[in-house]
Amino acid sequence: MMEHVRVASEFFNFSPKRFDLLVKTIEEMLPNAQHKRLINVCKTRWVARIDGLSVFIEVFPAIVRCLEIIRDNVGDKWNADSVRKSGPLLLATVSFSLIVALVVVSRCLEVTRPLTVQLQESAIDAGAPREKNMRNDVDVRHDSWHEEAESIGESVGTVPDQPRTTGRQQHRPNTPADSLSQYYRRVISVPFLDHLKSEIQTRFSETNLDVMDAVYGLPKNVLICPDWKTKFSTFLDMYKDDLPQPRFLDTELEMWAERYQMEKGPLPSKLADVLLFVDKISFPNIFTAFQIFATIPVTTCSCERSISVLRQLKTYLRSTMSESRLKGLALLNVHR
Prior knowledge:
Layout: H1 2-13, H2 16-29, H3 46-58, H4 60-71, H5 80-93, H6 96-119, H7 138-155, H8 180-203, H9 206-212, H10 219-224, H11 228-238, H12 249-262, H13 271-277, H14 284-294, H15 301-313, H16 323-334
GO molecular function: protein dimerization activity
Pfam family, one: Dimer_Tnp_hAT
Region (Disordered): 150-177
């Protein structure tokens, strides 16, 4: 399904002529649409995937109309390659099973979008991310998703039909069901949600979440979270052997809370500011704990940005650029 969205996006975005047709069709059919072009679905950047899927659904009727125009060679102005590619692409696009998959995946990934955006930031100041379980009420949610898919299918002339089931089937889903909605719930919604839940649990295991509990030791969380000490201690216990004076840790935590209760000025909210704010002599264990937390990698986004910037700066015509100049230009580009 995601591969189909990528192919359709490239079909229009990589041709100025087809791109211009899509823009004009969107303006005519969907004048209130927020987007006038498709977003290329990146294989590594999940935010682009989620946004690209949402835009694809928003302008879906215009996409189908453009594919029909190119397939029928309206105006006799489309080359043979465009006509040849548009036919199979249109046939797959108007498939009701694809429409259901588009809606289900889009609605599920919308829940993960805020966390996806947050993980791409250079600093994460929020509390530990927790899973929002959609699996338990999938029956209720899927009914609304199926109605949305039927509405989209109706706008492009797609009639929902019950897939054929046989005694033995090897090349397509063969799940028995009493209704069309129940069939797609068992074939698409439930398997996708189970897979998504499994991936979230793998990425945010209990150990990873215990490490993220270090954010409860930040001054702003000390004042607003009643159980900050318990959660912060979970992180401290994991690295107790690395602390300089673990024997005085309980006393430091009490002094840490008392200090910010009496503080009248603005409190630091980011980890980088806290490291400059902490008194190393009065709070050696807490300072060391924040140093450890600052060195724990969260994602590879910064590394991936650096690789992308390197290809922009050090092209084949600039292969002799010195190391110091390359580093300087890369830092200026990454940290704008």
